[in-house]
Amino acid sequence: MNKPKMIIFDYGQTIVNEKSFDPLRGTSAVLKEAAINPNNVSAEEVQALAYELGRDIGRWGVDAEKQTFLEVHNHVFQTYLYEYFDIEFTKPMAEVERIFLNGACIAEPTKNIVEFLSFLDSKKIRTSVISNISFSGNLLKEHINGLLPSNNFEFIIASSEYIFRKPHKRIFELALRKAKLNASDVWYCGDNAVFDVDGAAASGIFPVWYKGAIEKSNKYTPKSDCLEVNDWNEIIEMLGEL
């Protein structure tokens, strides 16, 4: 096990624990801001179509190993979703998605992540983020910076902005290019066995399976060899010995 020059993190259930994510709650918040809703379409009706669209593009309701490798940006998704119902907004799509996320998501930093990031800074180990997420990169950065204001992430890659989703090698290769590092110099930490652990390993990056905030619905285990941790303090101790 080599001491890394950079550790790249997943977002959800890795650096941030999304304790609750309720799309219906988010859609309800968005509809309150609608300028025109001529048919009085309900949040339930909108969300039912959103689930159908998610299945159509291979994002939701599909086994992790069968999900699409391509990302659809949330602004495009929202445009279809609301124009379908003739719902109009005076706010730009960026603000509509912010309203949705703030309404849907209740989140907090994962246990000891603030201390771990501080430790990495003290050891001159660089950090960054790759997230499979349809929200815009700007909103993801805003959200992370709000929850982890002292972070020193060099870059935050949202799949929405770069076509590819994990576990596709292209998104990992992009991160390596941005970091100007070889795969052997990098660790990747994430909660998802397929997207994060096996995806990183297939790209030659050392994978860390973080299970401290893993969702109960996550039924997969990695096929690749990895470091398994339940608390960030475990890695602090390991890195202190390297």
Defining key terms:
about 240 residues; alpha/beta; Rossmann fold; 6-stranded parallel sheet; two-stranded antiparallel sheet; elongated; HAD-like_sf; Haloacid dehalogenase; HAD_2; PGP-like_dom2
The best one-word shape is elongated
How widely separated are the two ends? 8 Å
Beta fraction: 15-25%
- What is the structural class? alpha/beta
Textual characterization of the structure:
The protein is of the alpha/beta class and 242 residues long. It folds into two domains: 6-19 and 107-241, Rossmann fold (3-Layer(aba) Sandwich); 21-105. Helices cover 40% and strands 15% of the residues. The chain has nine helices and eight strands. A six-stranded parallel beta sheet has the order 5-4-1-6-7-8, with helices on both faces. Strands 2-3 form a two-stranded antiparallel sheet. Helix 8 (193-202) links the parallel strand 6 (186-190) and strand 7 (206-210). The protein is elongated and about 65 Å long. It starts with 5 loop residues before the first strand and ends with a helix.
Q: How is this fold's topology laid out?
A:
Blueprint: E1 6-9, E2 16-21, H1 23-31, H2 43-56, H3 74-84, H4 93-104, E3 105-109, H5 113-122, E4 126-131, H6 137-147, E5 156-158, H7 169-179, E6 186-190, H8 193-202, E7 206-210, E8 227-229, H9 232-241
Parallel strand pairs: 1-4, 1-6, 4-5, 6-7, 7-8
Antiparallel strand pairs: 2-3
Helix pairs in contact: 1-2, 1-4, 3-4, 5-9
What is shown here, in short?
Helices cover 40% and strands 15% of the residues. The chain is built from 9 helices and 8 strands.
